[in-house]
Amino acid sequence: MPPTAAPSFHRFFGRGGLLQQAHPGYEFRPGQVEMAEAVAQALEERRHLLIEAGTGTGKTLAYLLPVLLGQRRVLLSTGTRNLQEQLVAKDVPLLARALGRELRVVSMKGRGNYACKVKIEQMEAQPTLLEREELDHYRRIRAWAAGSVAGDQAELDFLPDNHPLWQRLNARRETCTGGKCPRFDQCFLTLLHQRASEADLVVVNHHLFFADLMLKRQELPGVLPPYDAVVFDEAHELESTAGQYFGVGVSSHQVEDLARDAAATLRQLDCNPAELQPRCERLRIDAQKLFLALGAREGRAPLDRKQEFLDQHADAYDGFMQAAAHLEAGLQALDDKPEEIHNLLRRLAEARAKLAYVLESEEEGVVYWIERRGRGVFLQASPIDVSERLREMLFEATDTVILTSATLAVEGQFDYVRQRLGIQHAREQVVASPFRYAEQALLYLPAHLPPPTAEGYASAAAEEIAAILAASRGRAFVLCTSLAQMRWFHQRLAGRLAFPLLLQGEAPRHVLLERFRATPGAVLFATSSFWQGVDVQGEQFSCVIVDRLPFASPGDPVVAARIAALREQGRNPFAEFQVPEAVLALKQGFGRLIRSSRDRGVVALLDARIRSKGYGQQFLRSLPEYRVTGELAEVEAFFAAGAAEPALSAAPAPDRSAPPAAPAARTRARRSPAASG
Fold it and tell me: I need a labelling partner for 160 at 20 to 30 A (CA). Which of 130, 191, 386, 509 fits?
């Protein structure tokens, strides 16, 4: 659409505007126009922008419209693949209808999400390698791939995300021969890159963005098309994701995949299997011994006694290195090596180098740690501070970077996120939520509970949870800051509560959410994975209970390293890192409750420190404009009133310039900080 034909943002988003004509249920939100104008100005002036958009702002459409109407090539990065799919399947088609034109938008994910046509053909020639259950899945995948345009696993509703068969059929980089592949021109990835180069907008996720950034850093061909500007949605996740890609990591899964791929490739190519197959098996067995010695305990731990480990487990470490070298020597000796063998040699060299780096190096500014999750053991070397690399590789290399989220500001200011991400020059803006929190929500801070560090806290908190759930008639999330506390509360209350109880870990995340939505009065006990990216609207979800302020565990190796680094600089890690990080995490958790103008509910925080400690005011000043009470009787009255009255109407947001209504007895109204910038 040429610039002269572009509608104004008021004409598009306003009452009776193009968006409301395309979607009659749409509600006008002033903040949406405010955000769209800020994004358009940043793109036009080639400036960075930090913009916090309160829940309900409609930020996705607010940044999509100026991006699609502008003349610059913009890359959009979201926090997860699910958000990518929602944006492409729901938000973009709505915009296209409102604008009355076709929009060419392409979603790009990591290579492992796409099928490999060559592997599917090779599997057809070797059906004996499949189990009976796998054979049925394979036939359905083969039929699907023959007619699919994208080849995206998300199209397969019958195959679980982590099914081992998909790992043998996908287009992951480790087993791809690139331009030497006989089906390169028909490859799903080749066709995807062609569509992306012609698209109006390319949508990726943060993991793919940083994987591409690191490839280009190494002067290797990237996977993403050229772009002039980047918009990061869910930008509060950037530091964590960048840390993964700016570091070095190797896992037991990667080495197991390597041994399995080597054995399968040698069989398919008929490359001296009698001699080399035993070497593949030796690598697999020695890798199991090494990773078992490394990761005996569930969870994260620092790798701070590496020399002691190497001395104690020299046989396991040397055995793996020798097994990898032995297989590498056998592959090198093959004549006329096809590209698949060169891939295996590259992967063997990478695995040995990464393992040696993580276990033998002591680089300044790097934290070395290990994590065991189920059967997987993960070794990682992460930079303690990613700000300098982000500044150099992202904010100085790209003239317009727009970061948005519902949780970027602490007390209305962006100092913390600027410092963590290395942002030196950027406009800042806070767009207020349109929700009427003082009417729709009540913040319950029970004054009688002991602090979480006191003896007897867990029992007292369990009793309080039971009382709150009785008042809310279930319909709640109980969000805990640790798995152990979550399980303890669930076990303590399971025999007492009359509501259906769901527990994180009993089923996949999306299954638990569907059960919660479909089960009247359900209560879900969960941890951090349910603190964000969850959208449940309506009366079925009426209460969020948080056990304590979500300070990151100082025992976590990355957190401990960041605390130590700040302390060495003579700074205050608690005030400058731990409190702001916890504030943003709490905002994410509390943001689960009020998701529409008709929602109504109670947020309960069972941590007395928010009242008794000076830093508690930072949390309160950073939260929305809830009414606050310390009395359970008011919680009961709030829910009783909700049961007796119809749902809140979708009235427009109140005039913020007017004085607040007088608070009810034993409650107070609190205003959010004014927007900055």
Answer: 191
